[in-house]
Amino acid sequence: KLHIVQYPLHAHLWTKSKAHIVCGIIWICSLAILIPSLVIDKNDVQFNYLLYTCIYGFSAEAWTIWRPVFGSFATVVPNIVVLVTTIWLIVIAVKATNRGTDKVK
Length: 105
Fold this sequence. Notes:
Blueprint lengths: L1 H5 L9 H25 L4 E4 L4 E4 L6 H37 L6
Antiparallel strand pairs: 1-2
């Protein structure tokens, strides 16, 4: 949304390959929390095919250090991104209303 508001004429110029690259980067970032679960202790993950669930035991010694790091990353970073882009959009909207010609409805 921020990109569309800041560069309204450039937003429609994204090609399919650029959109695929952005989606791929987001997908890889989402795997950054799941892959270490398998790397640290692959026997610590239990799959239940009846309910289609995946249960992580977090019983390895390494999880005493890595669990808070990954938990913080998974909860703090997305909230900071949303907060920063929301404030940025509000600042752009306020500047547009102060110019007098553009109105925010």
